[in-house]
Amino acid sequence: MTSVKRTELSMFDGRQIFYYDSVSVDRIAVDKRPFEERPLPGEMRQDLLTGEWIAMASHRQTRAFLPPKEFCPLCPTLTDFGTEIADSTFEVVVFENRSPSFAAPSVALPKEVVQSSGRCDVVVFSDKHEGSFGTLPLTQMRTVLAAWIDRTRAISQLSYVEQVFIFENRGEEVGVTLNHPHGQIYSYPFVTPRTEKMLAVAKEHYQKTHKPLITSIIEREIKDEVRIIAQNEHWIAYVPFAARYPFEIHVAPKKFVPDFAELSEDVADTFPVLAKEVLQRLDGVFGIEMAYIAAWHQAPVRQGRDLLGLHWQITSIRRAPGKLKYLAGSESAMGAFIMDLKPEQSAQQLRDVKL
Ligand SMILES: [Zn+2]
Questions:
Q1: Most buried by CB count within 10 Å: which residue of 162, 208, 225, 264?
Q2: Are both 182 and 199 inside the same structural domain?
Q3: Is the pLDDT score of 251 beyond 70?
């Protein structure tokens, strides 16, 4: 890893916690909360009609929902209230989710149950309670990137993980239950339905052209020009040709790379400036904080490594001030999207934002 230092410590219930620091500090804070047994992993069931896996995470119903700042579990520990992070200051922290949808396999569960094996991590972007990825200082964004890279490499080594999914949700409209700036890492024991589909399309494309699909897509975006929002030496941001949401932005490295594990330091170094610009443009469209889902697509751990390229998909469900795009009949039941705005128009709106 670059100059970012990682310190691994243990939480009160045995979960792992990693501190990532761009300056050298000794992390020794002890989690003083009384020991508690960790919940067993849940089960997975296969949808009999589609073959898709559904994780049954009913134990998650009791998790914290929008607590006030003084009871925020992602803030540093400053009072007698022990948060998830025992230290009184930190830069970026990653720890295992306390109520995970996927967890390490357990021998305690009966054999007939298909376990939701995998892992769920929380990535805390800052020790400040307000903000989101795009409002972090550039150096801090780079530290988050270092954490994503380091965790993708480590989790990819777990025998029961097939795919590592890194994402950030912002805004209560998209189901955020904690306002503190953070993201998550879902590590699945299967390849997700959307990724399966993308792999199939990319495979067909590769057989015809001997090129990864994302490489051809970027070539087309550069040629068409009209949907590009921003770019620099190593990254390009554009509204995809057939966007599904009024404000959907894809950001990809110009040179194909399957995942964070293989992202080079110099390409990573140029990401924060572009990411900040893109997120500022998104907020600038209506002059309000846009609720969004920022999702990192990565190649699965053990297949399609030369087919699926790393890229960042930001989708906002807001289509106008005071108006959200709901997934209605066609989208929810059939998976067939109806888009209210031409992608070229939304790219123009994003480009026109004065920064
Ligand atoms: Zn907080």
A1: 162
A2: no
A3: yes
